[in-house]
Amino acid sequence: MAEAVGLTTVYRGIPYAMPPVGSLRFMPPVSGALWQGVRLAEHFAPVCPQRLPDISNETAARERMPRGRLDTLRRLLPHLQHQDEDCLYLNVYAPSQVGSTTRKSPVIVFIHGESYEWNSGNPYDASVLASYGGVVVVTVNYRLGILGEYL
């Protein structure tokens, strides 16, 4: 089940791999994240564990990182608080008319950056791009830092 956002249908928190915990912690992702019946896809899943820099002292933070990076981190922080190792999820933004037509839609897979240290696919609202661009957009959460040698 999804949520309608304007002219877009949004599916949040869809697992794309088994939870990378226990014996899977330092292994490549393992497919098989299947479920029975209807899955609610209305909420973002947790983001992967990441060490967030302390920016409470702005002067000290500016000495450690460029202004643009600090501003980006400040914007992203609210979206990076709910962390869990069970984090291999994606979000799909599709124009509402997809599925009601036989026309195929192009797909954009957006893989976030930020120096492989912190971020998530959750903060990136692709509903406008999906609705006006007529494309399906997928944002991805993946493991970062020491846990992230693999997508």
Automatic annotation (TrEMBL):
Keywords: Glycoprotein, Signal. It comes from the Eukaryota. InterPro entries: AB_hydrolase_fold, CarbesteraseB, Carboxylesterase_B_CS, Neuroligin/BSAL. The keyword Signal applies. The keyword Mitochondrion does not apply. SUPFAM superfamilies: alpha/beta-Hydrolases. Pfam families: COesterase. Residues 9-148 form the Carboxylesterase type B domain. Belongs to the type-B carboxylesterase/lipase family. This is Neuroligin-4, Y-linked-like.
